[in-house]
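Troubleshooting log. The previous structure file for this entry was overwritten by mistake, so regenerating from the original sequence record. Sequence copied from the archived sheet and checked twice against the printout by T.R.
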Amino acid sequence: MKAALRQLRTVDNIRGVVRKGKEMDFLILFLIYLAVSFSCMVIVIKFSRQSQECFARISHHVTRMIGPVVPRWLQIAVQYALYRLIHQRNSFFLVLHLMLEVAVYGEYSWDVFPYSLELGFTLSILLLPYILLLGKMYFFYLCCTSDPGIISPSNHKQLVKVYTYDGILYQRACVCSTCKLVKPARSKHCRVCGCCVHRFDHHCVWVNNCIGALNIRYFLFYLFTLLGMTAAVGTVTVRFLVQVALMSNLPQAMYVNTKGEHVPVGVLFIVQKLFLTFPRILFMLGFTLLSFFLLVGYTAFHLFLVMTNQTSNEWYKHKINCRCHMDNSCPDRQIWRNLYHRGLVTNMKEIICPVTPQKRSR
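Regenerated output below.
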Protein backbone atom coordinates (compact mmCIF):
# COMPACT_ATOMS: atom_id res chain seq x y z
CA MET A 1 0.00 0.00 0.00
CA LYS A 2 2.80 2.41 0.85
CA ALA A 3 4.49 1.61 -2.45
CA ALA A 4 1.27 2.43 -4.29
CA LEU A 5 0.98 5.76 -2.51
CA ARG A 6 4.59 6.55 -3.37
CA GLN A 7 3.80 5.77 -6.99
CA LEU A 8 0.91 8.23 -6.92
CA ARG A 9 3.06 10.89 -5.27
CA THR A 10 5.44 11.30 -8.19
CA VAL A 11 7.77 14.26 -8.54
CA ASP A 12 5.12 16.13 -10.54
CA ASN A 13 2.53 15.56 -7.85
CA ILE A 14 4.85 16.74 -5.06
CA ARG A 15 5.56 19.92 -6.96
CA GLY A 16 1.84 20.27 -7.69
CA VAL A 17 2.43 20.41 -11.43
CA VAL A 18 1.72 17.65 -13.97
CA ARG A 19 1.50 17.62 -17.72
CA LYS A 20 -1.13 15.75 -19.72
CA GLY A 21 0.48 13.62 -22.37
CA LYS A 22 0.42 10.12 -23.71
CA GLU A 23 -0.91 8.84 -20.40
CA MET A 24 -4.38 9.85 -21.60
CA ASP A 25 -4.14 6.92 -24.01
CA PHE A 26 -4.59 4.60 -21.02
CA LEU A 27 -7.82 6.38 -20.11
CA ILE A 28 -9.05 6.11 -23.68
CA LEU A 29 -8.31 2.38 -23.67
CA PHE A 30 -10.15 2.04 -20.38
CA LEU A 31 -13.21 3.83 -21.78
CA ILE A 32 -13.11 1.57 -24.84
CA TYR A 33 -12.96 -1.43 -22.50
CA LEU A 34 -16.05 -0.16 -20.65
CA ALA A 35 -17.94 0.42 -23.90
CA VAL A 36 -17.08 -3.02 -25.28
CA SER A 37 -17.95 -4.73 -21.99
CA PHE A 38 -21.26 -2.91 -21.79
CA SER A 39 -22.16 -3.82 -25.38
CA CYS A 40 -21.27 -7.49 -24.87
CA MET A 41 -23.27 -7.71 -21.64
CA VAL A 42 -26.33 -6.08 -23.23
CA ILE A 43 -26.14 -8.48 -26.19
CA VAL A 44 -25.77 -11.55 -23.98
CA ILE A 45 -28.65 -10.51 -21.69
CA LYS A 46 -30.85 -9.78 -24.69
CA PHE A 47 -29.97 -13.05 -26.42
CA SER A 48 -30.45 -15.07 -23.24
CA ARG A 49 -34.24 -14.57 -23.46
CA GLN A 50 -36.53 -14.39 -26.48
CA SER A 51 -33.72 -13.87 -28.92
CA GLN A 52 -32.87 -17.12 -30.66
CA GLU A 53 -34.69 -15.96 -33.82
CA CYS A 54 -32.93 -12.58 -33.73
CA PHE A 55 -29.57 -14.24 -33.26
CA ALA A 56 -30.28 -16.55 -36.18
CA ARG A 57 -31.11 -13.60 -38.44
CA ILE A 58 -27.97 -11.73 -37.43
CA SER A 59 -25.86 -14.84 -37.93
CA HIS A 60 -27.40 -15.30 -41.39
CA HIS A 61 -26.57 -11.72 -42.45
CA VAL A 62 -23.02 -11.97 -41.11
CA THR A 63 -22.52 -15.25 -42.98
CA ARG A 64 -23.67 -13.63 -46.22
CA MET A 65 -21.22 -10.76 -45.73
CA ILE A 66 -18.13 -12.81 -44.91
CA GLY A 67 -19.04 -15.81 -47.06
CA PRO A 68 -16.93 -14.85 -50.10
CA VAL A 69 -13.72 -14.43 -48.04
CA VAL A 70 -14.06 -17.20 -45.44
CA PRO A 71 -13.49 -20.88 -46.33
CA ARG A 72 -16.64 -23.00 -46.43
CA TRP A 73 -15.37 -25.48 -43.84
CA LEU A 74 -14.74 -22.66 -41.37
CA GLN A 75 -18.24 -21.27 -41.94
CA ILE A 76 -19.76 -24.68 -41.23
CA ALA A 77 -17.66 -25.09 -38.07
CA VAL A 78 -18.66 -21.64 -36.75
CA GLN A 79 -22.35 -22.20 -37.56
CA TYR A 80 -22.28 -25.57 -35.79
CA ALA A 81 -20.60 -24.03 -32.75
CA LEU A 82 -23.14 -21.19 -32.62
CA TYR A 83 -26.01 -23.64 -32.99
CA ARG A 84 -24.70 -25.71 -30.08
CA LEU A 85 -24.19 -22.55 -28.06
CA ILE A 86 -27.62 -20.98 -28.63
CA HIS A 87 -30.05 -23.80 -29.46
CA GLN A 88 -28.76 -26.66 -27.32
CA ARG A 89 -28.30 -26.93 -23.60
CA ASN A 90 -24.66 -26.42 -22.66
CA SER A 91 -22.55 -25.12 -19.82
CA PHE A 92 -20.60 -22.41 -21.66
CA PHE A 93 -22.31 -19.39 -20.10
CA LEU A 94 -22.52 -21.13 -16.73
CA VAL A 95 -18.75 -21.65 -16.71
CA LEU A 96 -18.20 -18.11 -18.04
CA HIS A 97 -20.35 -16.79 -15.20
CA LEU A 98 -18.25 -18.59 -12.60
CA MET A 99 -14.97 -17.53 -14.25
CA LEU A 100 -16.01 -13.85 -14.17
CA GLU A 101 -16.88 -14.14 -10.50
CA VAL A 102 -13.54 -15.80 -9.75
CA ALA A 103 -11.76 -12.95 -11.56
CA VAL A 104 -13.68 -10.24 -9.67
CA TYR A 105 -13.35 -11.85 -6.25
CA GLY A 106 -9.75 -12.78 -6.93
CA GLU A 107 -8.83 -9.13 -7.50
CA TYR A 108 -10.98 -8.04 -4.56
CA SER A 109 -9.27 -10.53 -2.25
CA TRP A 110 -5.77 -9.94 -3.59
CA ASP A 111 -5.68 -6.13 -3.62
CA VAL A 112 -8.81 -4.35 -2.41
CA PHE A 113 -9.38 -6.35 0.79
CA PRO A 114 -5.82 -6.10 2.25
CA TYR A 115 -5.37 -2.47 1.15
CA SER A 116 -8.73 -1.46 2.62
CA LEU A 117 -7.97 -3.33 5.84
CA GLU A 118 -4.69 -1.45 6.09
CA LEU A 119 -6.56 1.84 5.64
CA GLY A 120 -8.83 1.06 8.61
CA PHE A 121 -11.99 -0.24 6.94
CA THR A 122 -14.20 -2.26 9.30
CA LEU A 123 -14.01 -6.02 8.87
CA SER A 124 -17.80 -6.38 8.66
CA ILE A 125 -17.94 -4.14 5.57
CA LEU A 126 -15.08 -5.99 3.90
CA LEU A 127 -16.65 -9.41 4.59
CA LEU A 128 -20.11 -8.44 3.30
CA PRO A 129 -19.29 -9.35 -0.35
CA TYR A 130 -18.25 -12.86 0.75
CA ILE A 131 -21.48 -13.34 2.74
CA LEU A 132 -23.53 -12.28 -0.28
CA LEU A 133 -21.44 -14.61 -2.44
CA LEU A 134 -22.40 -17.58 -0.26
CA GLY A 135 -26.08 -16.67 -0.53
CA LYS A 136 -25.80 -16.18 -4.27
CA MET A 137 -24.10 -19.56 -4.75
CA TYR A 138 -26.90 -21.26 -2.82
CA PHE A 139 -29.66 -19.79 -5.00
CA PHE A 140 -27.52 -20.25 -8.10
CA TYR A 141 -27.27 -23.96 -7.30
CA LEU A 142 -31.04 -24.17 -6.81
CA CYS A 143 -31.67 -22.42 -10.13
CA CYS A 144 -29.34 -24.80 -11.93
CA THR A 145 -30.59 -28.04 -10.42
CA SER A 146 -34.24 -27.55 -9.42
CA ASP A 147 -37.20 -28.61 -11.54
CA PRO A 148 -38.68 -25.50 -13.24
CA GLY A 149 -42.03 -27.24 -13.63
CA ILE A 150 -41.48 -29.77 -16.41
CA ILE A 151 -44.79 -31.10 -17.76
CA SER A 152 -44.89 -34.86 -18.08
CA PRO A 153 -47.68 -37.39 -18.68
CA SER A 154 -47.79 -38.10 -14.94
CA ASN A 155 -48.57 -34.51 -13.87
CA HIS A 156 -50.22 -33.22 -17.03
CA LYS A 157 -53.83 -33.68 -15.92
CA GLN A 158 -53.23 -31.78 -12.69
CA LEU A 159 -51.33 -28.89 -14.32
CA VAL A 160 -54.03 -28.35 -16.94
CA LYS A 161 -56.39 -27.38 -14.11
CA VAL A 162 -54.09 -24.77 -12.52
CA TYR A 163 -54.68 -21.81 -14.86
CA THR A 164 -57.64 -20.92 -17.06
CA TYR A 165 -57.18 -20.37 -20.79
CA ASP A 166 -57.49 -16.72 -21.83
CA GLY A 167 -58.42 -17.57 -25.43
CA ILE A 168 -55.75 -15.23 -26.86
CA LEU A 169 -52.27 -16.28 -25.81
CA TYR A 170 -53.41 -19.69 -24.60
CA GLN A 171 -55.95 -21.76 -26.50
CA ARG A 172 -57.68 -24.92 -25.39
CA ALA A 173 -56.75 -28.18 -27.07
CA CYS A 174 -53.46 -26.75 -28.34
CA VAL A 175 -51.14 -29.76 -28.57
CA CYS A 176 -47.35 -29.50 -28.33
CA SER A 177 -45.95 -31.02 -31.51
CA THR A 178 -42.90 -32.34 -29.64
CA CYS A 179 -44.28 -33.54 -26.31
CA LYS A 180 -47.65 -34.66 -27.80
CA LEU A 181 -49.48 -33.21 -24.81
CA VAL A 182 -52.17 -30.54 -24.61
CA LYS A 183 -50.45 -27.38 -23.47
CA PRO A 184 -51.65 -26.11 -20.08
CA ALA A 185 -52.34 -22.38 -19.91
CA ARG A 186 -49.18 -20.28 -19.35
CA SER A 187 -46.91 -23.15 -20.41
CA LYS A 188 -44.46 -23.19 -23.31
CA HIS A 189 -42.20 -25.69 -24.97
CA CYS A 190 -38.52 -24.84 -24.51
CA ARG A 191 -36.56 -25.76 -27.62
CA VAL A 192 -33.29 -25.73 -25.68
CA CYS A 193 -34.37 -28.13 -22.92
CA GLY A 194 -36.74 -30.07 -25.18
CA CYS A 195 -39.74 -30.07 -22.83
CA CYS A 196 -42.84 -28.07 -21.93
CA VAL A 197 -42.55 -25.98 -18.75
CA HIS A 198 -45.39 -24.96 -16.44
CA ARG A 199 -45.74 -21.14 -16.21
CA PHE A 200 -42.73 -20.76 -18.49
CA ASP A 201 -40.81 -17.51 -18.00
CA HIS A 202 -37.62 -17.89 -20.04
CA HIS A 203 -34.62 -20.12 -20.57
CA CYS A 204 -31.65 -18.63 -18.71
CA VAL A 205 -28.29 -19.45 -20.26
CA TRP A 206 -26.47 -18.29 -17.11
CA VAL A 207 -27.96 -21.10 -15.02
CA ASN A 208 -28.37 -23.52 -17.96
CA ASN A 209 -31.97 -24.17 -17.02
CA CYS A 210 -35.50 -22.98 -17.68
CA ILE A 211 -37.15 -20.56 -15.28
CA GLY A 212 -40.70 -21.65 -14.54
CA ALA A 213 -43.32 -21.92 -11.84
CA LEU A 214 -41.26 -24.02 -9.43
CA ASN A 215 -37.94 -22.16 -9.51
CA ILE A 216 -38.86 -18.54 -10.30
CA ARG A 217 -38.55 -17.67 -6.60
CA TYR A 218 -35.00 -19.04 -6.53
CA PHE A 219 -34.18 -17.02 -9.63
CA LEU A 220 -35.44 -13.80 -8.03
CA PHE A 221 -33.36 -14.38 -4.89
CA TYR A 222 -30.43 -15.19 -7.14
CA LEU A 223 -30.85 -11.80 -8.85
CA PHE A 224 -31.16 -9.98 -5.50
CA THR A 225 -28.00 -11.55 -4.07
CA LEU A 226 -26.08 -11.03 -7.33
CA LEU A 227 -27.12 -7.38 -7.33
CA GLY A 228 -26.07 -7.08 -3.70
CA MET A 229 -22.68 -8.61 -4.52
CA THR A 230 -21.93 -6.10 -7.25
CA ALA A 231 -23.11 -3.22 -5.04
CA ALA A 232 -20.97 -4.35 -2.10
CA VAL A 233 -17.81 -4.96 -4.13
CA GLY A 234 -18.27 -1.70 -6.04
CA THR A 235 -18.91 0.35 -2.91
CA VAL A 236 -15.86 -0.95 -1.05
CA THR A 237 -13.65 -0.45 -4.11
CA VAL A 238 -14.86 3.11 -4.75
CA ARG A 239 -14.36 4.03 -1.07
CA PHE A 240 -10.85 2.62 -1.21
CA LEU A 241 -9.93 4.56 -4.36
CA VAL A 242 -11.42 7.81 -3.02
CA GLN A 243 -9.46 7.47 0.21
CA VAL A 244 -6.24 6.73 -1.67
CA ALA A 245 -6.78 9.80 -3.88
CA LEU A 246 -7.32 12.01 -0.85
CA MET A 247 -4.29 10.63 0.96
CA SER A 248 -2.08 11.34 -2.07
CA ASN A 249 -3.49 14.89 -2.49
CA LEU A 250 -4.53 14.24 -6.08
CA PRO A 251 -7.48 16.70 -5.92
CA GLN A 252 -4.99 19.52 -5.15
CA ALA A 253 -2.66 18.68 -8.06
CA MET A 254 -2.13 21.11 -10.94
CA TYR A 255 -1.09 20.76 -14.57
CA VAL A 256 0.36 23.17 -17.11
CA ASN A 257 -1.88 23.76 -20.13
CA THR A 258 -0.78 24.80 -23.61
CA LYS A 259 -0.73 28.45 -22.54
CA GLY A 260 1.68 27.73 -19.71
CA GLU A 261 -1.00 28.29 -17.05
CA HIS A 262 -1.32 26.21 -13.88
CA VAL A 263 -4.77 24.63 -13.98
CA PRO A 264 -6.35 22.31 -11.35
CA VAL A 265 -6.72 18.73 -12.50
CA GLY A 266 -10.18 17.31 -13.11
CA VAL A 267 -11.90 14.04 -12.33
CA LEU A 268 -10.66 12.42 -15.54
CA PHE A 269 -7.05 13.05 -14.57
CA ILE A 270 -7.60 11.55 -11.12
CA VAL A 271 -9.21 8.47 -12.68
CA GLN A 272 -6.32 8.25 -15.14
CA LYS A 273 -3.74 8.44 -12.34
CA LEU A 274 -5.55 5.82 -10.29
CA PHE A 275 -5.81 3.65 -13.38
CA LEU A 276 -2.07 3.82 -13.97
CA THR A 277 -1.41 2.90 -10.34
CA PHE A 278 -4.15 0.27 -9.84
CA PRO A 279 -5.01 -0.98 -13.36
CA ARG A 280 -6.42 -4.33 -12.24
CA ILE A 281 -8.63 -2.71 -9.60
CA LEU A 282 -9.98 -0.17 -12.10
CA PHE A 283 -10.73 -2.88 -14.67
CA MET A 284 -12.52 -4.90 -12.01
CA LEU A 285 -14.45 -1.84 -10.83
CA GLY A 286 -15.50 -0.94 -14.36
CA PHE A 287 -16.87 -4.43 -14.98
CA THR A 288 -18.58 -4.47 -11.57
CA LEU A 289 -20.30 -1.11 -12.12
CA LEU A 290 -21.51 -2.12 -15.57
CA SER A 291 -22.88 -5.37 -14.14
CA PHE A 292 -24.59 -3.45 -11.35
CA PHE A 293 -26.48 -1.06 -13.63
CA LEU A 294 -27.54 -3.85 -15.98
CA LEU A 295 -28.69 -5.98 -13.05
CA VAL A 296 -30.68 -3.05 -11.63
CA GLY A 297 -32.68 -2.83 -14.84
CA TYR A 298 -33.05 -6.59 -15.23
CA THR A 299 -34.14 -7.07 -11.60
CA ALA A 300 -36.58 -4.15 -11.81
CA PHE A 301 -38.12 -5.71 -14.93
CA HIS A 302 -38.67 -9.03 -13.14
CA LEU A 303 -40.13 -7.26 -10.12
CA PHE A 304 -42.59 -5.58 -12.48
CA LEU A 305 -43.51 -9.00 -13.88
CA VAL A 306 -44.03 -10.36 -10.37
CA MET A 307 -46.24 -7.44 -9.32
CA THR A 308 -48.41 -7.79 -12.44
CA ASN A 309 -48.33 -11.61 -12.50
CA GLN A 310 -46.82 -11.88 -15.94
CA THR A 311 -44.03 -14.01 -17.33
CA SER A 312 -41.32 -12.81 -19.68
CA ASN A 313 -42.89 -14.98 -22.35
CA GLU A 314 -46.31 -13.32 -21.87
CA TRP A 315 -44.83 -9.83 -21.79
CA TYR A 316 -42.98 -10.51 -25.03
CA LYS A 317 -46.08 -11.89 -26.75
CA HIS A 318 -48.19 -8.99 -25.47
CA LYS A 319 -45.61 -6.57 -26.86
CA ILE A 320 -45.89 -8.20 -30.30
CA ASN A 321 -49.69 -8.16 -30.00
CA CYS A 322 -49.71 -4.42 -29.30
CA ARG A 323 -47.32 -3.76 -32.17
CA CYS A 324 -49.64 -5.60 -34.56
CA HIS A 325 -52.57 -3.42 -33.53
CA MET A 326 -50.55 -0.24 -33.85
CA ASP A 327 -49.46 -0.92 -37.44
CA ASN A 328 -52.74 -2.72 -38.38
CA SER A 329 -50.80 -5.73 -39.63
CA CYS A 330 -53.25 -8.11 -37.91
CA PRO A 331 -56.48 -6.20 -37.17
CA ASP A 332 -58.45 -9.36 -36.32
CA ARG A 333 -56.22 -10.24 -33.38
CA GLN A 334 -57.73 -9.50 -29.98
CA ILE A 335 -55.94 -7.30 -27.45
CA TRP A 336 -54.59 -9.41 -24.60
CA ARG A 337 -55.71 -8.51 -21.10
CA ASN A 338 -53.94 -10.12 -18.18
CA LEU A 339 -56.59 -12.08 -16.30
CA TYR A 340 -53.96 -13.68 -14.08
CA HIS A 341 -53.31 -10.41 -12.24
CA ARG A 342 -55.08 -10.74 -8.86
CA GLY A 343 -53.48 -8.05 -6.74
CA LEU A 344 -49.97 -7.42 -5.50
CA VAL A 345 -50.11 -9.62 -2.39
CA THR A 346 -51.69 -12.58 -4.19
CA ASN A 347 -49.27 -12.27 -7.10
CA MET A 348 -46.26 -12.34 -4.79
CA LYS A 349 -47.73 -15.24 -2.83
CA GLU A 350 -48.07 -17.16 -6.09
CA ILE A 351 -44.34 -16.75 -6.73
CA ILE A 352 -43.29 -17.80 -3.23
CA CYS A 353 -45.83 -20.65 -3.06
CA PRO A 354 -46.47 -21.82 -6.65
CA VAL A 355 -50.08 -22.46 -7.58
CA THR A 356 -51.21 -26.07 -7.32
CA PRO A 357 -54.35 -27.72 -8.68
CA GLN A 358 -55.96 -27.23 -5.26
CA LYS A 359 -55.32 -23.46 -5.52
CA ARG A 360 -56.15 -23.10 -9.17
CA SER A 361 -57.26 -19.86 -10.80
CA ARG A 362 -60.95 -19.09 -10.84
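The beta strands are 188-190, 195-197, 202-204, 209-211, 254-256, 262-264. Archived copy saved in two places this time.
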